[in-house]
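User: What would this chain look like folded?
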Amino acid sequence: MSRLWGSNPSNGEDQHHDEDQHHDASGERREPDERTSLLPRETHHHLDPDDPAVSPYNLLSVRSLRWVSIFLFIIAVLWWLVLLIATFVSPPGFHTRGGGWFGFAYSILATAILLVLLLFYATPSKTERVVLSMVFFFLLVDTIIILAAYPIRHDENWVGIVSVVWALLVTAWAIMCDAVVEYGKREEEERLTGRIETRHSFREWCSVFAGTILITIFLAVTILFTINLSIRARDATLAPPGKLYFVDSNKYQVHINCIGNTTNSNGHKVTTVFIEGGEDPVEGRIANWVDEAYNNNAIQRYCYWDRPGMAWSENAPSPFSAGVAADALSEALRKADEEGPWVLVSHGVGGIYSRIFASRHTVEVKGLLLIDTLPESLLHRIGSPSRGFLLWVRGVIYPLGIDRLVSAIILQHNRNDRVYGRDAYQNGKQIKYKLQENLVATTFTNNEIIAARGILPRDMPVVVVSSGQKVKKDKEWNDGQRELSQLTDKLVAWDVVNGAPHEVWRNSHGKDILGKRLVQLVNYN
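Assistant: Here's the prediction, encoded as structure tokens.
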């Protein structure tokens, strides 16, 4: 059998002693003469198959591929580290509009495949190659989905594309290395033992078993990636009700939707109610209540937007504070030719964003309706390290899409649920936005809201409507609502709706109070 690239001399080959001294027929030693052979006589002694010298590492090709694999593993670790950093702070050029979780997941997969390859390098297995071939197939499908579906390609940017192609190439490399090592192993066994060994040691069986289990896990992970990408491609076909506008030097797009005419029948400009959502997207929640008010002619026009990472809006680069969000909203409104005047209606954490926006647009903003909004004294709840860690872990496992798979296939939830409805919390973009919010809540955002409180005009009308349930259960929340009632000198009303949950409009009495206060602010002189 021909050797692959050649091999090193084996330490275990039969090396004859130099026959500098020769023996005669009687067994006595005699001095060498001109008839003494200069070369030792060749024998055909074979090694024991368990001898450590029987190794594929004798081949230069096998050793070379291992060193190249180590080099690729170093590159994979470095790429993983860069993307790990990018989940917290966006390096120049590494911003991904879709959250970046898939790119990070593919970098983990590529690194893990190379690590398994190196750990079990000397024990190749046909089963491992078959499973790796299946991993390669599904990664190829993932690559096609990402490249073919424009919304996903747009969201993943070059970072996600490079990551999935890198994982694809690493898988192909692992298959090739395993095949070369197996060929080299057979060659060395035949050369050094005289036959191809069919039995395996207990250590080899354990090595093959462990490697196969790990690669099977990689296969399951890759299949889940493919299913989640397919669901994501399906969700991307849901058109937004409004329009998307590029902001921040065309780095990302935000969604704004406006309903109603800007002028009344007399040609006078109407006051527009602008909605800032809370912990979840606006659509299907607070927007429903405002839309009822619009249909009942209580208000003449309203608009809302999705903060970057929510519903149809794309993720912004990190770090991303409430002040940066206010700037993005200002730019998007300018591009949409929306000038106000505004009455800002906000819920939950959205109150922080509305107040900062109001402090930067004091002329256009006529009033604030704060619906059980978060006071700045409780920003530490949003910015707690434990919450941030859990959000990061959730983002890392998001590409598996197990919860999305359950909701889509078992619970039969539709794309509306996943984009802005009850399953929106599973969305990778929203997870990334909440992580961004968490990282700067007690630093940048806290400083911005303190500055906004000092800038907000003292004569701006403010209405505070609080959840009776939360006020009774949480003293800090009650104190925070009282702080909000003292934002300006023109407190129109502070209503605590007994029995109302955090989403006050879901309570019939709360809805009536909100409708009444909204009309007061819109018509306030």
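The longest strand covers residues 252-259. If you want, I can go into more detail on any region.
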